[in-house]
UniProtKB/TrEMBL annotation:
Renumbered residue ranges of the record's region Disordered: 253-281
Keywords noted in UniProt: Membrane, Signal, Transmembrane, Transmembrane helix
Protein's name in the database: Surface-anchored protein
Record's signal peptide: 1-31
Length: 327
């Protein structure tokens, strides 16, 4: 699937959705305006970017997590783009601060029934589109060595997630589209997300309560030579202004949950996750390529409808081709 085309559609849809937000009645959304010239979505990751050692706390600015390959082995690092130049950090030594400024009124529409939010209730949100006042967390598979080695892409596995509240990760088409849930802290098993090679993605991270959170994240992939690679790390979140960084740094996953995660990771191979997760990858691929299409309906009339139908045919064709490749 063409990555640039998907992001172009996303930008157009988001811009139209936000511009008409005051005119259209719909479910409240975490989506925010997106600059059509946003350089962070068109980012270039260089091979010589430095790795910064030591603890850090980031409360605003851009961060991506992703695999890096060195001397035949993988590690997961966080690409911190919040300073004057990007550096990579060990996520387990990083505290991601979700400030009180990230509080938004939680949606209560039918599409968001899984949140069970009450009218007027507010949740902490790292949004899918950037708000420069708070942290902006995504993921990428853009390390130059990774792009050379990966066959098609990688599986990002999230879970378990622990903290005082519930956590959700979801993509949304424009300002009013239904959410595509990628991860839910209430799930019994870790959840897999397919990520194409050389991809940069952002989604909504939602926390129902303030406090210290920790999440296990893994990347698994098949190399062009047929070998398998994987790496694991922890993401640490300080949700709310009153949570100290030390509270988050000293928090560890419960041993029982960690053992359960390891068991689920050793059951299938990375290729098995790829072959067995077609439905998940197809949904994520459709969401990535048609993001903000929902906002076009009713906005641009018959022209928008034609665009939707045309894009839908392309997506279905790509899915059919992917299935043929699997067979």
């Amino acid at each position: 699937m063409h990555h640039t085309t998907a992001h172009t559609i996303a930008k157009v849809g988001c811009a139209l959705a936000i511009a008409l937000a005051s005119l259209i009645t719909g479910t409240p959304s975490f989506a925010q305006p997106r600059d059509s010239e946003d350089p962070q979505l068109q980012q270039h990751v260089a091979a010589d970017e430095k790795i910064e050692i030591g603890s850090a706390e980031i409360a605003a600015g851009h961060i991506d997590i992703g695999p890096r390959s060195r001397e035949g082995s993988w590690s997961i690092l966080a690409r911190d783009d919040s300073g004057s130049e990007p550096v990579w950090r060990d996520p387990s030594e990083l505290v991601i601060r979700v400030k009180d400024e990230a509080l938004l009124e939680a949606p209560t529409g039918e599409d968001f029934a899984f949140m069970a939010a009450q009218p007027g209730e507010k949740y902490y949100v790292i949004p899918q589109t950037q708000n420069p006042e708070i942290v902006w967390l995504g993921w990428n598979t853009q390390d130059p060595q990774i792009t050379r080695e990966l066959a098609r892409g990688a599986t990002m596995r999230i879970g378990p997630i622990q903290g005082p509240g519930d956590v959700w990760l979801f993509l949304q088409d424009g300002a009013f589209g239904a959410p595509l849930r990628l991860a839910d802290s209430r799930a019994e098993k870790p959840q897999d997300i397919w990520v194409d090679v050389n991809t940069h993605v952002h989604a909504n991270w939602v926390f129902s309560a303030p406090g210290a959170y920790v999440a296990r994240v893994s990347f698994l992939g098949e190399m062009s030579d047929g070998s398998q690679r994987e790496a694991h790390t922890l993401l640490r979140f300080a949700v709310g202004n009153d949570v100290t960084a030390d509270q988050v740094r000293t928090m560890a996953l419960e041993e029982e949950s960690t053992a359960s995660t390891r068991s689920s990771e050793t059951a299938p191979s990375a290729q098995g996750s790829d072959a067995g997760g077609d439905e998940n990858k197809e949904e994520a691929g459709v969401a990535a390529s048609t993001i903000a299409i929902g906002a076009l309906v009713g906005v641009a009339g018959l022209v928008a409808l034609a665009v939707i139908l045309y894009r839908g045919r392309i997506v279905r064709k790509e899915i059919a081709q992917a299935r043929a490749e699997q067979e």
